[in-house]
Design brief:
The chain is an alpha/beta fold and about 220 residues long. The protein is built from eleven helices and six strands. It folds into two domains: about 130 residues, Rossmann fold (3-Layer(aba) Sandwich); about 60 residues, Orthogonal Bundle (Arc Repressor Mutant, subunit A). It is about 55% helix and about 15% strand. The chain has a six-stranded parallel sheet, sandwiched between helices. The termini are far apart.
Length: about 220
């Protein structure tokens, strides 16, 4: 019986030494074939279009188009592609932004070669893989730690402002929010204004984008 073909992988990271080391490590076995490298999100799109990989490994922070934006664009062009985020960012906001963009794997950069290869093979087979600490945060979020999560993601907001932001992200207008929270509409407007100021965004749509990238507004 012939051996299974190697999983075709593209690696994207703007730190050359980490990228070179990862490519070298992945090349030591026969399960994975690195078919391309990129140092930015825009370069990643071009390399993926040219090489048609099975899995992409990408960092989140890169010049130009970042890893979240690149993931979203990659999956629009190549819907079956497995995207594995390998990053130093272990905060909830980065994690949920990557998951919302469509990443099916999320590992920290201290993962060893064996863990990364296992994740690559799993994604190539259609599965999703998350590091232990990452998986625990996902479980916490979906099993009732929503309010604590929101407090960690947006610590600059008061508890009431986080409740309002969550409802804004759900698509509720000021009148609906006022009814749900038993507030005057003027009070809701004041809370929305305070949220925009504290998040340093220009309008309601930008606040919704921030909230949804962080995973809020998705329970209903």
């Amino acid at each position: 019986m012939a051996d299974a073909p190697a999983v075709r992988v593209v690696v994207a990271d703007d730190h050359p030494m980490y990228r070179y080391g990862l490519v070298a490590a992945l090349g030591t076995g026969g399960e994975v074939e690195v078919v391309g490298e990129a140092a930015s999100g825009d370069e990643l799109l071009a390399v993926a279009d040219r090489t048609s990989p099975d899995v992409v490994l990408t960092d989140l922070t890169m010049p130009g188009l970042d890893g979240v934006g690149a993931t979203r664009a990659l999956l629009a062009r190549h819907p079956g592609l497995g995207v594995l985020v390998v990053t130093m960012h272990e905060d909830d906001q980065a994690l949920f932004a990557a998951l919302r963009a469509g990443a099916r794997g999320y590992l920290l950069k201290d993962a060893d070669r064996e863990e990364i290869v296992r994740a690559i093979l799993a994604l190539a087979g259609g599965d999703a893989v998350y590091g232990g600490a990452v998986a625990r945060r996902i479980v916490d979020f979906f099993t009732g730690a929503h309010r604590d999560y929101a407090a960690r993601v947006f610590p600059e907001l008061t508890e009431r402002e986080r409740e309002v932001l969550d409802l804004v992200a759900l698509g509720c207008g000021n009148h609906q929010i006022a009814r749900r929270l038993t507030l005057a509409e003027k009070t809701v407007r004041n809370h929305v204004s305070a949220i925009l100021y504290k998040l340093q965004v220009s309008d309601r749509a930008a606040a919704v984008a921030r909230a949804r990238d962080a995973g809020l507004g998705e329970r209903e």
